[in-house]
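Subject: design request, 412 residues
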């Protein structure tokens, strides 16, 4: 029988009633003849609560134990979803990541999926089971320890299962009815897209649009998974949601197709480091070893052989970054006068494959922000995106004014 993957995010399984509602949707697909793999997230708020427990217990936690704690939310919803389906007379069984087993790297708290053996679940389908409910977000490391895939990782679990089982489609059910030109919770003018290219979705996701985890888009692109984002609160329909697909299938042609933001950014400045060969390696090596995800980097012009080095990273990694740099200083590998952490910044980005062929996008972006009196602290560009770091208090204003400036509410 053809296989369908259906993923339900936190809001879609937030209460027993919502689990029931989701299970009914699963039942509809089973009735159509699909064997269904359901991937569930933890009930909304659960993972945040668990992360909070970990941080309170141990601010510079051991990531193996972080994973042991934060993976548990999904176990609850997987079991409850299987029970709900059984109550509806749909033969269902739950799996935790290690039972499948979802084999991952041992990069705790942001592990990558390496392999998903299908025999276990396929055998059960063969015995008449119709729905395999799998706890998203989690796997097992080569050492046999529980891993998690990074926040939002259930999306990646879903796409990886769709690829492994050759699923006809991977439906991501969430609390909005598709992918928008920007977060509909920030701009009322955000417009739902019927289709978006893998490339643009990948950029938007990696720049903060959390509707899909970045790696899920990467995997869908690589394995040609038919990926759809839709709401679990709207009536089922074949046209619902947004299809993430190849660039050729998307008709719109405009320089910018979406605005993304990432709220929790920090700007770190090392004041007065020696301007010498190897200094960047001496700074960013220890940061990388400490698991800090450095994003933007700028090195100022040197004066008298000294320079300032600025980089950005997620706010929740500031402590780790400080510790790593202080240790490097103590061991004599680097020398700096001061480390300044600005934790009140955010990143706002404009994304569009049209940028490849149309110029003037950066100028328009900077002018728009300037007209709003917003100061740009750091700029980064690539072929299809422009990102700026600005004060967090201007985030909504920046997103809305850029959405207006690039006329994203209008269809072409
Ligand atoms: P889930 O719990 O279902 O995984 P998430 O909270 O992870 O849901 O992702 C859905 C949220 O993503 C939406 O509620 C919305 O606020 C946010 N979002 C950010 N950017 C976009 C966008 N461009 N289009 C749609 N939603 C977006
Ligand atoms: N529950 C996890 C999180 O909140 C994974 C997910 O929902 O995708 O990040
Ligand atoms: Mg999510």
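Subject: RE: design request

Done. Sequence follows.
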């Amino acid at each position: 029988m053809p296989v369908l993957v259906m993923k339900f995010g936190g809001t879609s399984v937030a209460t027993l009633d919502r689990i029931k509602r989701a299970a009914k949707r699963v039942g509809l697909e089973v009735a159509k003849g699909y064997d269904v793999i359901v991937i569930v997230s933890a009930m909304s708020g659960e993972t945040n609560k668990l992360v909070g427990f970990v941080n309170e217990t141990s601010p510079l936690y051991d990531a193996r134990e972080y994973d042991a704690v934060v993976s548990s939310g999904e176990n609850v919803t997987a079991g409850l979803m299987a029970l709900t389906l059984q109550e509806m007379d749909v033969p269902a069984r739950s799996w935790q990541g290690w039972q499948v087993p979802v084999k991952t790297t041992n990069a705790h708290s942001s592990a990558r999926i390496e392999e998903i053996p299908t025999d276990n679940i396929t055998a059960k389908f063969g015995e008449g089971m119709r729905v395999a409910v799998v706890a998203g977000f989690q796997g097992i490391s080569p050492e046999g320890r529980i891993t998690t895939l990074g926040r939002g990782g259930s999306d990646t679990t879903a796409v990886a299962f769709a690829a492994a089982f050759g699923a006809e489609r991977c439906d991501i059910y969430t609390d909005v009815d598709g992918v928008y030109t920007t977060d509909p919770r920030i701009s009322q003018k955000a417009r739902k897209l019927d289709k978006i290219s893998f490339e643009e979705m990948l950029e938007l996701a990696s720049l903060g649009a959390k509707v899909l985890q970045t790696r899920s888009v990467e995997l869908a692109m690589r394995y040609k998974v038919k990926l759809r984002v839709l709401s679990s609160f709207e009536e089922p329909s074949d046209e619902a949601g947004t299809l993430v697909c190849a660039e050729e299938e998307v008709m719109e042609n405009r320089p910018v197709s979406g605005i993304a933001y990432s709220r929790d950014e920090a700007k770190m400045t090392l004041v007065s480091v020696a301007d010498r060969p190897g200094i960047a390696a001496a700074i960013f090596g220890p940061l990388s070893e400490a698991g800090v995800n450095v994003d933007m980097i700028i090195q100022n012009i040197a004066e008298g052989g000294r320079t300032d080095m600025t980089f950005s990273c997620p706010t929740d990694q500031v402590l780790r970054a400080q510790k790593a740099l202080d240790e490097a200083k103590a061991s004599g590998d680097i020398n700096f006068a001061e480390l300044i952490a600005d934790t009140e910044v955010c990143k706002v980005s404009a994304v569009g494959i049209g940028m490849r062929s149309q110029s003037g996008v950066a100028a328009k972006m900077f002018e728009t922000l300037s007209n709003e009196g917003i100061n740009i602290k750091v700029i980064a560009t690539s072929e299809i995106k422009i990102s700026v770091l600005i004060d967090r208090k201007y985030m909504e204003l920046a997103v809305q004014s850029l959405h207006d400036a690039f006329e994203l509410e209008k269809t072409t």
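The chain has two domains: 3-175, 259-405.
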